[in-house]
């Protein structure tokens, strides 16, 4: 058997031993808190670490594979020599692209990476450029959203493990699809989190999901390295084209060089090494343009960020919902303001936060393609009390209006799986914590949270009930059925038009012009020769714009001075040159 060096950073225990296939081996500590042992090991050997006098064998914090779950021994793993066939993949930029967010466990009936491969040709036909997979890191239980990961380096085994992820990414690249992986570095899950027994991975602070990660206190240097190496691993070892970074506002970094700036620099270096673009998309609710400002201009250098203001402005204008954080949104004026400037809250008072929020975006230097526009995300449906989608509450015409506003905008666009055919499946919050007390607390906490907002506790799905997970799976039989198929074809045409019309590729918000009538409920986005005309009310209206109709939802009557349209409809006009 070949020799293998096992290493683990564990500054807290006074003794660390390697358990290799049931046999204990001593490890030697260096001054930096790393323990090492070089022993003969099979390529697929099972191993773990025994800390101090506690006989329990703990998995490797940098485990490459967890075949029996996050509480058991790790396994050595390396990809097969012929695992990859994507050497011709040159990569692509996410800016201006169309991204498709999906959850592996509910994307197909089987809920595996291999099963997802069978749907990639559908995505290519739809016209998307990237798939963004919700977290695939190892977490406790068999199914869940993935944001409670505890072994960040390993691929969740029920999805197929690391070899299946290679097959999935390789298959995407063979079809010209980029792959983005959702990574969570702001907290650790409650099931299987043994990292604090090794070292100071957690800080004294907290966030809504638990204790914060230590990226600025004593011992933070090695924790930061743990995060950075994990981020690079997804892009280097699994050929991902970038990461979506979860809730970066919860990364409290008091050091002079923010960890996101450091990650940006190392990602750029890796990009140069592999010879293809690599992207970092941050989820942030700060509305801080420094996040997407290049490092050489004093920013953190993220490629792009999710923009919830755009979602809120579109959703409230179409649906009429105004509760919670939707309170400052809902008018066409607000929609226009948000689409023109990227952020609605830009140093303005937020009634939800009861303070000023955000900072203005310099639209002359930062292109709109650094912000993501979407009508739906896993958060915006899954964090609703019963996980209901807009398709369960709105007409197909209203869904078409939302799609046109997002895909017709100059922003990088993102869809959530099934959105394009108005999937009838909810996307509910589900988990499968194996610990009875944790399972009970999760279910009771979910009901208590929404009962405090006026919901009947009996209506709140139990996240631990397997039926909650099962009902959240997409029903692929709907795709071509009736209005489902008609809406999917409209999305497909919108995406194709977005790519075909040069004026729809202009990324500068200063070139954008918007007209609207609050009372008549019509809204027009002008982008060069293209006018995206939407009616948000139920009545027929005359909109003072004309041209050649190139795509419609509804039956417009285009006149010489105006276009007559029905309620909840869309017409995209092109002016003669």
UniProtKB/TrEMBL annotation:
| GO BP annotation list | trehalose biosynthetic process
Highest taxon, organism lineage: Bacteria
Tell me which UniProt keywords the record has, alphabetically: Carbohydrate metabolism, Cytoplasm, Glycosidase, Hydrolase
Query: Which stretches make up the Glycosyl hydrolase family 13 catalytic domain?
Result: 78-498
Write down the EC number. 3.2.1.141
CC terms in the record's Gene Ontology section: cytoplasm
Q: Which sequence ranges are marked TM in the entry?
A: none
Annotated catalytic residues: 246, 283
Question: What Gene Ontology terms describe what this protein does at the molecular function level?
Answer: 4-alpha-D-(1->4)-alpha-D-glucanotrehalose trehalohydrolase activity
Q: Where is the composition biased (Basic and acidic residues)?
A: 55-74
Q: Pathway membership of this protein? A: Glycan biosynthesis; trehalose biosynthesis
Please name the PANTHER family in this protein's record.
Answer: 1,4-ALPHA-GLUCAN-BRANCHING ENZYME (PTHR43651), MALTO-OLIGOSYLTREHALOSE TREHALOHYDROLASE (PTHR43651:SF11)
Query: What is the protein name given in its UniProt record?
Result: Malto-oligosyltrehalose trehalohydrolase
